[in-house]
Predict the 3D structure of the following.
Amino acid sequence: MTVRAIDQFGRTIEYLRISVTDKCNFRCLYCMPAEGLQWLPRSDLLSYEEITGIVARLAGLGLRRLRITGGEPTIRPQLHKLIAMLRQIPRIEDIALSTNGVSLPSLANDLAAAGLDRVNISADSLQPERLARISRRKLDFDPIVSALAAERAGLDPVKINVVVMRGINDDEIVDFARLTFDHAWHIRFIELMPVGGMRDVTWEHVVPSDEVIERASMLGALSPCDAPVQGNGPAAYYRFAGAEGTIGVITPMSHTYCATCNRVRLTADGRLRTCLFGDHEVNLRDAYRGGEDLEPIFRQALAAKPLEHELLQMKIGGLRALSQVGG
Ligand code: SAM
Ligand code: SF4
Protein backbone atom coordinates (compact mmCIF):
# COMPACT_ATOMS: atom_id res chain seq x y z
CA MET A 1 0.00 0.00 0.00
CA THR A 2 1.33 3.48 -0.85
CA VAL A 3 1.45 5.71 2.23
CA ARG A 4 0.92 9.39 1.52
CA ALA A 5 1.13 12.47 3.69
CA ILE A 6 -1.61 14.94 2.76
CA ASP A 7 -2.03 18.43 4.14
CA GLN A 8 -5.25 20.31 4.92
CA PHE A 9 -5.54 21.52 1.32
CA GLY A 10 -5.04 18.08 -0.22
CA ARG A 11 -1.42 18.65 -1.25
CA THR A 12 0.77 15.52 -1.10
CA ILE A 13 3.84 16.23 1.04
CA GLU A 14 6.76 14.01 0.09
CA TYR A 15 9.77 16.30 0.04
CA LEU A 16 11.83 17.27 3.10
CA ARG A 17 14.57 19.89 3.12
CA ILE A 18 16.97 19.15 5.96
CA SER A 19 19.21 21.91 7.28
CA VAL A 20 22.31 20.42 8.89
CA THR A 21 23.82 23.71 10.08
CA ASP A 22 22.86 27.37 10.35
CA LYS A 23 26.48 28.44 9.80
CA CYS A 24 28.13 29.35 6.53
CA ASN A 25 31.52 30.16 5.02
CA PHE A 26 29.81 32.84 2.86
CA ARG A 27 27.86 35.94 3.82
CA CYS A 28 25.73 36.40 0.70
CA LEU A 29 24.24 39.90 0.51
CA TYR A 30 20.67 38.60 0.43
CA CYS A 31 21.04 35.85 3.02
CA MET A 32 23.29 36.75 5.95
CA PRO A 33 24.54 39.95 7.53
CA ALA A 34 28.30 40.49 7.17
CA GLU A 35 28.78 40.00 10.90
CA GLY A 36 26.98 36.63 10.83
CA LEU A 37 23.99 35.62 12.92
CA GLN A 38 23.39 34.32 16.43
CA TRP A 39 24.55 30.71 15.84
CA LEU A 40 22.78 27.76 17.42
CA PRO A 41 24.63 26.10 20.32
CA ARG A 42 26.08 22.69 19.38
CA SER A 43 23.77 20.86 21.80
CA ASP A 44 20.73 22.25 19.98
CA LEU A 45 21.76 20.73 16.66
CA LEU A 46 20.36 17.40 15.62
CA SER A 47 23.06 14.73 15.43
CA TYR A 48 23.32 12.66 12.25
CA GLU A 49 21.76 9.75 14.17
CA GLU A 50 18.83 11.94 15.22
CA ILE A 51 18.28 13.27 11.69
CA THR A 52 18.30 9.71 10.37
CA GLY A 53 15.89 8.55 13.08
CA ILE A 54 13.43 11.37 12.33
CA VAL A 55 13.63 10.86 8.56
CA ALA A 56 13.11 7.11 8.94
CA ARG A 57 9.91 7.80 10.88
CA LEU A 58 8.67 10.39 8.37
CA ALA A 59 9.53 8.13 5.44
CA GLY A 60 7.07 5.66 6.94
CA LEU A 61 4.45 8.42 6.76
CA GLY A 62 5.04 9.31 3.11
CA LEU A 63 8.28 11.30 2.68
CA ARG A 64 10.20 10.20 -0.40
CA ARG A 65 12.72 12.87 -1.33
CA LEU A 66 15.34 14.72 0.66
CA ARG A 67 17.48 17.79 0.16
CA ILE A 68 20.40 18.53 2.45
CA THR A 69 20.85 22.25 2.94
CA GLY A 70 21.79 24.89 5.51
CA GLY A 71 23.53 27.34 6.12
CA GLU A 72 26.28 25.70 4.14
CA PRO A 73 25.89 21.94 4.63
CA THR A 74 29.40 21.02 3.49
CA ILE A 75 30.98 22.79 6.46
CA ARG A 76 29.44 20.22 8.80
CA PRO A 77 32.15 17.57 9.27
CA GLN A 78 31.78 14.15 7.63
CA LEU A 79 28.66 15.05 5.68
CA HIS A 80 29.09 11.91 3.57
CA LYS A 81 28.35 9.84 6.70
CA LEU A 82 24.90 11.43 7.00
CA ILE A 83 24.26 10.78 3.30
CA ALA A 84 25.20 7.12 3.74
CA MET A 85 22.88 6.80 6.76
CA LEU A 86 19.96 8.42 4.93
CA ARG A 87 20.58 6.22 1.90
CA GLN A 88 19.86 3.15 4.02
CA ILE A 89 16.30 4.29 4.80
CA PRO A 90 13.74 2.28 2.84
CA ARG A 91 11.37 4.35 0.66
CA ILE A 92 13.75 7.32 0.30
CA GLU A 93 14.02 7.66 -3.48
CA ASP A 94 16.11 10.77 -3.98
CA ILE A 95 18.79 12.62 -1.99
CA ALA A 96 19.96 16.03 -3.24
CA LEU A 97 22.32 18.65 -1.83
CA SER A 98 22.22 22.47 -1.98
CA THR A 99 25.66 23.99 -1.61
CA ASN A 100 27.60 27.10 -2.46
CA GLY A 101 29.99 24.70 -4.18
CA VAL A 102 33.22 25.78 -2.48
CA SER A 103 33.96 22.27 -1.18
CA LEU A 104 32.67 20.25 -4.10
CA PRO A 105 36.06 19.74 -5.77
CA SER A 106 37.26 17.96 -2.60
CA LEU A 107 33.98 16.35 -1.45
CA ALA A 108 32.00 15.43 -4.57
CA ASN A 109 33.44 11.91 -4.95
CA ASP A 110 32.85 10.95 -1.31
CA LEU A 111 29.33 12.35 -1.34
CA ALA A 112 28.46 10.51 -4.54
CA ALA A 113 29.97 7.27 -3.22
CA ALA A 114 27.88 7.64 -0.05
CA GLY A 115 24.71 7.77 -2.14
CA LEU A 116 24.07 11.41 -2.96
CA ASP A 117 22.06 11.59 -6.18
CA ARG A 118 22.42 15.18 -7.30
CA VAL A 119 23.46 18.68 -6.44
CA ASN A 120 22.36 22.31 -6.73
CA ILE A 121 25.22 24.78 -6.72
CA SER A 122 24.51 28.40 -5.83
CA ALA A 123 26.64 30.77 -7.90
CA ASP A 124 25.73 34.38 -8.44
CA SER A 125 28.59 35.40 -10.69
CA LEU A 126 31.19 33.93 -13.03
CA GLN A 127 33.55 36.79 -12.22
CA PRO A 128 35.82 36.04 -9.22
CA GLU A 129 35.92 39.61 -7.88
CA ARG A 130 32.18 40.03 -8.13
CA LEU A 131 31.53 36.66 -6.55
CA ALA A 132 33.70 37.70 -3.62
CA ARG A 133 31.72 40.96 -3.30
CA ILE A 134 28.33 39.20 -3.34
CA SER A 135 29.39 36.41 -0.95
CA ARG A 136 31.59 38.77 1.08
CA ARG A 137 34.26 36.08 1.19
CA LYS A 138 37.28 35.55 -1.01
CA LEU A 139 37.64 31.78 -1.13
CA ASP A 140 39.14 31.26 -4.60
CA PHE A 141 36.02 29.48 -5.69
CA ASP A 142 35.18 28.87 -9.33
CA PRO A 143 31.61 27.61 -9.80
CA ILE A 144 32.53 26.06 -13.14
CA VAL A 145 35.25 23.93 -11.50
CA SER A 146 32.73 22.86 -8.84
CA ALA A 147 30.09 21.97 -11.41
CA LEU A 148 32.63 19.94 -13.40
CA ALA A 149 33.72 18.14 -10.21
CA ALA A 150 30.08 17.27 -9.44
CA GLU A 151 29.52 16.03 -12.97
CA ARG A 152 32.67 13.90 -12.91
CA ALA A 153 31.59 12.36 -9.62
CA GLY A 154 28.38 11.22 -11.33
CA LEU A 155 26.01 13.62 -9.58
CA ASP A 156 23.17 14.08 -12.01
CA PRO A 157 21.59 16.42 -12.81
CA VAL A 158 23.83 19.37 -11.89
CA LYS A 159 21.83 22.54 -11.34
CA ILE A 160 23.30 25.99 -10.86
CA ASN A 161 21.18 28.52 -8.97
CA VAL A 162 21.71 32.22 -9.68
CA VAL A 163 19.93 34.84 -7.56
CA VAL A 164 19.47 37.71 -10.01
CA MET A 165 19.94 41.21 -8.60
CA ARG A 166 19.43 44.34 -10.64
CA GLY A 167 22.59 46.40 -10.95
CA ILE A 168 24.61 43.71 -9.12
CA ASN A 169 24.75 40.66 -11.43
CA ASP A 170 21.89 40.96 -13.93
CA ASP A 171 24.40 41.73 -16.69
CA GLU A 172 25.56 38.09 -16.42
CA ILE A 173 22.20 36.50 -17.33
CA VAL A 174 23.45 35.89 -20.86
CA ASP A 175 26.83 34.52 -19.68
CA PHE A 176 25.12 31.97 -17.44
CA ALA A 177 22.58 31.09 -20.13
CA ARG A 178 25.39 30.50 -22.64
CA LEU A 179 26.79 27.70 -20.44
CA THR A 180 23.81 25.52 -21.37
CA PHE A 181 24.96 25.20 -24.99
CA ASP A 182 27.98 23.08 -24.07
CA HIS A 183 27.11 21.65 -20.65
CA ALA A 184 24.19 19.43 -19.65
CA TRP A 185 23.63 21.71 -16.67
CA HIS A 186 20.45 23.37 -15.57
CA ILE A 187 20.92 27.06 -14.90
CA ARG A 188 18.14 28.33 -12.67
CA PHE A 189 17.58 32.01 -12.20
CA ILE A 190 15.95 32.74 -8.84
CA GLU A 191 14.00 35.88 -8.11
CA LEU A 192 15.50 37.67 -5.16
CA MET A 193 13.34 37.56 -2.03
CA PRO A 194 14.03 40.69 0.01
CA VAL A 195 13.69 38.97 3.42
CA GLY A 196 15.54 38.67 6.70
CA GLY A 197 16.19 42.35 7.25
CA MET A 198 19.06 42.49 4.71
CA ARG A 199 20.50 45.96 4.41
CA ASP A 200 22.10 45.61 1.01
CA VAL A 201 19.28 44.29 -1.15
CA THR A 202 15.78 45.65 -1.51
CA TRP A 203 12.72 45.34 -3.71
CA GLU A 204 14.50 47.52 -6.24
CA HIS A 205 16.99 44.72 -6.87
CA VAL A 206 14.31 42.17 -7.78
CA VAL A 207 14.41 41.19 -11.48
CA PRO A 208 11.15 39.47 -12.53
CA SER A 209 11.68 36.13 -14.24
CA ASP A 210 9.85 37.21 -17.38
CA GLU A 211 12.56 39.82 -17.86
CA VAL A 212 15.26 37.18 -17.25
CA ILE A 213 13.84 34.97 -19.99
CA GLU A 214 13.57 37.92 -22.34
CA ARG A 215 17.20 38.89 -21.74
CA ALA A 216 18.47 35.29 -22.09
CA SER A 217 16.59 35.08 -25.40
CA MET A 218 19.17 37.42 -26.89
CA LEU A 219 21.15 34.21 -27.48
CA GLY A 220 18.34 32.51 -29.43
CA ALA A 221 14.75 31.34 -29.14
CA LEU A 222 13.91 29.52 -25.90
CA SER A 223 11.33 26.74 -25.96
CA PRO A 224 9.56 25.45 -22.83
CA CYS A 225 10.72 21.96 -21.85
CA ASP A 226 10.27 19.34 -19.13
CA ALA A 227 11.92 19.63 -15.72
CA PRO A 228 15.22 17.69 -15.41
CA VAL A 229 13.80 15.96 -12.34
CA GLN A 230 10.04 15.75 -12.09
CA GLY A 231 8.15 16.64 -9.01
CA ASN A 232 10.32 18.45 -6.46
CA GLY A 233 10.67 21.99 -7.48
CA PRO A 234 8.78 25.01 -8.62
CA ALA A 235 11.00 25.97 -11.58
CA ALA A 236 9.77 26.43 -15.17
CA TYR A 237 12.32 25.21 -17.74
CA TYR A 238 13.35 26.32 -21.24
CA ARG A 239 15.95 25.19 -23.77
CA PHE A 240 17.80 26.75 -26.71
CA ALA A 241 17.61 24.65 -29.90
CA GLY A 242 20.46 22.11 -29.80
CA ALA A 243 21.59 23.06 -26.28
CA GLU A 244 22.83 20.39 -23.85
CA GLY A 245 21.35 22.00 -20.74
CA THR A 246 18.30 24.02 -19.79
CA ILE A 247 17.40 27.35 -18.29
CA GLY A 248 14.98 27.51 -15.39
CA VAL A 249 13.28 30.32 -13.55
CA ILE A 250 12.11 30.17 -9.95
CA THR A 251 9.60 32.86 -9.24
CA PRO A 252 8.70 33.23 -5.58
CA MET A 253 7.93 36.91 -6.09
CA SER A 254 6.12 37.24 -9.41
CA HIS A 255 4.28 33.89 -9.67
CA THR A 256 3.13 31.80 -6.74
CA TYR A 257 3.72 28.05 -6.62
CA CYS A 258 2.20 27.56 -3.18
CA ALA A 259 -0.79 25.73 -4.67
CA THR A 260 1.42 22.77 -5.62
CA CYS A 261 3.80 22.96 -2.64
CA ASN A 262 4.98 19.44 -1.78
CA ARG A 263 7.57 20.25 0.88
CA VAL A 264 8.33 20.75 4.53
CA ARG A 265 11.59 21.69 6.23
CA LEU A 266 13.59 20.39 9.17
CA THR A 267 15.74 23.12 10.73
CA ALA A 268 19.20 22.38 12.12
CA ASP A 269 17.73 22.42 15.65
CA GLY A 270 15.00 19.99 14.75
CA ARG A 271 11.96 22.15 14.08
CA LEU A 272 9.61 20.99 11.37
CA ARG A 273 8.53 24.03 9.37
CA THR A 274 5.61 23.61 7.05
CA CYS A 275 6.12 26.91 5.23
CA LEU A 276 9.28 28.78 4.24
CA PHE A 277 8.01 32.00 5.79
CA GLY A 278 5.97 32.58 8.91
CA ASP A 279 6.02 30.73 12.20
CA HIS A 280 4.47 27.44 11.22
CA GLU A 281 6.74 25.06 13.08
CA VAL A 282 6.76 22.24 15.63
CA ASN A 283 9.66 20.97 17.71
CA LEU A 284 10.41 17.46 16.46
CA ARG A 285 13.79 17.33 18.18
CA ASP A 286 12.43 17.38 21.72
CA ALA A 287 9.65 14.97 20.78
CA TYR A 288 12.20 12.60 19.24
CA ARG A 289 14.62 12.94 22.17
CA GLY A 290 11.71 12.31 24.56
CA GLY A 291 10.76 9.10 22.73
CA GLU A 292 7.37 10.46 21.62
CA ASP A 293 5.48 9.16 18.62
CA LEU A 294 6.17 11.63 15.78
CA GLU A 295 3.15 10.63 13.70
CA PRO A 296 0.45 12.71 15.44
CA ILE A 297 2.81 15.69 15.65
CA PHE A 298 3.61 15.43 11.94
CA ARG A 299 -0.03 15.04 10.98
CA GLN A 300 -1.05 18.02 13.12
CA ALA A 301 1.67 20.14 11.52
CA LEU A 302 0.42 19.21 8.03
CA ALA A 303 -3.13 19.98 9.09
CA ALA A 304 -1.96 23.52 9.86
CA LYS A 305 0.26 24.03 6.76
CA PRO A 306 -0.82 27.38 5.32
CA LEU A 307 -2.23 27.80 1.84
CA GLU A 308 0.44 30.29 0.80
CA HIS A 309 3.48 31.99 2.28
CA GLU A 310 3.34 35.34 3.99
CA LEU A 311 5.59 36.96 1.44
CA LEU A 312 2.62 36.79 -0.90
CA GLN A 313 0.54 38.62 1.63
CA MET A 314 3.35 41.18 1.95
CA LYS A 315 3.72 40.52 5.67
CA ILE A 316 7.48 40.49 5.37
CA GLY A 317 8.64 42.47 8.39
CA GLY A 318 10.81 40.38 10.71
CA LEU A 319 10.99 37.32 8.45
CA ARG A 320 14.00 35.13 9.08
CA ALA A 321 16.93 34.73 6.69
CA LEU A 322 16.81 31.62 4.52
CA SER A 323 20.02 30.33 6.10
CA GLN A 324 18.11 30.06 9.39
CA VAL A 325 15.16 28.15 8.03
CA GLY A 326 16.96 25.85 5.57
CA GLY A 327 16.07 27.76 2.41
N1 SAM B 1 24.43 27.43 1.35
C1 SAM B 1 23.70 26.67 0.41
C2 SAM B 1 23.55 27.43 -0.89
O1 SAM B 1 23.85 28.62 -0.92
O2 SAM B 1 23.11 26.79 -1.85
C3 SAM B 1 22.35 26.19 0.90
C4 SAM B 1 21.51 27.15 1.68
S1 SAM B 1 20.96 28.60 0.81
C5 SAM B 1 20.01 29.39 2.07
C6 SAM B 1 19.77 27.90 -0.31
C7 SAM B 1 19.37 28.77 -1.48
O3 SAM B 1 18.65 29.88 -1.00
C8 SAM B 1 20.52 29.32 -2.31
O4 SAM B 1 20.32 28.98 -3.67
C9 SAM B 1 20.41 30.80 -2.11
O5 SAM B 1 20.83 31.49 -3.26
C10 SAM B 1 18.93 30.96 -1.84
N2 SAM B 1 18.61 32.20 -1.12
C11 SAM B 1 19.00 32.59 0.12
N3 SAM B 1 18.47 33.79 0.45
C12 SAM B 1 17.72 34.17 -0.63
C13 SAM B 1 16.93 35.33 -0.91
N4 SAM B 1 16.80 36.31 -0.05
N5 SAM B 1 16.32 35.38 -2.12
C14 SAM B 1 16.42 34.38 -3.02
N6 SAM B 1 17.15 33.25 -2.81
C15 SAM B 1 17.80 33.16 -1.63
FE1 SF4 C 1 25.61 30.82 2.88
FE2 SF4 C 1 23.98 29.78 1.07
FE3 SF4 C 1 23.21 31.87 2.59
FE4 SF4 C 1 25.07 32.25 0.75
S1 SF4 C 1 22.94 31.62 0.37
S2 SF4 C 1 25.17 32.97 2.89
S3 SF4 C 1 26.14 30.32 0.74
S4 SF4 C 1 23.63 29.83 3.29
Remarks:
- Residues 15-324 form a domain with the TIM Barrel fold (CATH 3.20.20.70).
